[in-house]
Write a structure and sequence with these properties.
alpha+beta; N-terminal domain of MutM-like DNA repair proteins; Helicase, Ruva Protein, domain 3; 8 helices; glycosidase; DNA-binding; Ribosomal_uS13-like_H2TH; zinc; multifunctional enzyme
């Protein structure tokens, strides 16, 4: 799933390549991807792209008073083309294409989604806050200071993993970077935030800033097609089950659920005690 660094990189790419161009046509290959009825997608035709930004994990293309907001979900992606085919896409079937945006000069981008479980969503709105998910976002992970983070964690009894990935609490962090942040901070995914001492919160704040900033720096300026590979190359524990921890050499372990999994290092994060691999697991004693 694209998270804050990848979405920021995509926004940067659009600022570099799309701003100043005119939207010549929008093709909808999958009507289910469009979550708004008015304004119609045809209202974007003829508008100049005036900016591109990010709200948590939402991508925002500004078009002369309207916003095309995109949430890429788990398997969605933006594919830029310097020569975009003018032929309208054929809807339905196994075509991963959901929406195509034609820009002046023959360039543009596709929004695609792999797999059968569809979550990619797009909105056309006058204000980003008109999108319910954006209106409900917590503070951006890169805009948090240490005191604000401490306030968010105080009294929080959910597991740390759950809190970090809750977009209403902190915006922008998903499954992968939460694993990286907790590993860097040497904190258990099952830690109770309200019980963290001051030095733990300090470590979590520093890890959040360092992991995300480093990922943004690696990602921004990369071609959109390379971003997924760039993300994987920078991860230390996430997606590395069975491989050695780059810090201590212990084997990276995994806890899996019905539709996702997370990875951690027992030596670095849980005092050497592996977490039981079941939904309501506790530390094995």
């Amino acid at each position: 799933m694209p998270e804050l660094p990848e979405v920021e990189a995509l926004a940067h790419h659009l600022r570099e390549h799309a701003v100043g161009r005119t939207v010549t046509r929008i093709d909808i290959a999958s009507l289910s991807v469009l979550k708004t009825v008015t304004p119609a997608w045809t209202e974007l035709h003829g508008r100049e792209v005036t900016g591109a930004g990010r709200h948590g994990k939402y991508l925002d293309l500004e078009c002369s008073g309207l916003h095309l907001i995109v949430h890429l979900a788990r398997a969605g992606w933006l594919r830029w083309a310097d020569e975009l085919s003018p032929k309208p896409p054929r809807p339905g079937g196994k075509n991963p294409l959901a929406l195509r945006t034609h820009l002046s000069g023959g360039v543009g981008f596709d929004l695609t989604e792999a797999g059968t479980k569809k979550g990619l969503a797009a909105w056309i709105v006058a204000e980003p806050s008109d999108v319910p998910g954006i209106a409900a976002l917590g503070p951006d992970a890169l805009e948090l200071d240490r005191d604000r983070l401490g306030d968010l964690l105080a009294g929080e009894t959910r597991r740390l993993k759950t809190v970090l990935t809750d977009q209403k609490t902190i915006a922008g962090i998903g499954n992968a970077y939460s694993d990286e942040i907790m590993h860097t901070a040497r904190l258990s995914p099952y830690a109770t935030p309200a019980r963290l001492v001051g030095e733990d919160v300090d470590a979590l704040f520093e890890a959040t800033r360092d992991v995300l900033t480093s990922a943004v720096e690696r990602s921004v300026g990369q071609d959109a097609a390379r971003l997924k590979g760039e993300k994987r190359s920078g991860l230390r524990v996430h997606g590395r089950t069975g491989l050695p921890c780059p810090v201590c050499g212990d084997t990276v372990r995994e806890v899996s659920f019905a539709d996702k999994a997370f990875q951690y290092c027992a030596t670095c994060q849980t005092g050497g005690k592996p977490l039981a691999d079941r939904r309501l697991s506790r530390l094995v004693k």
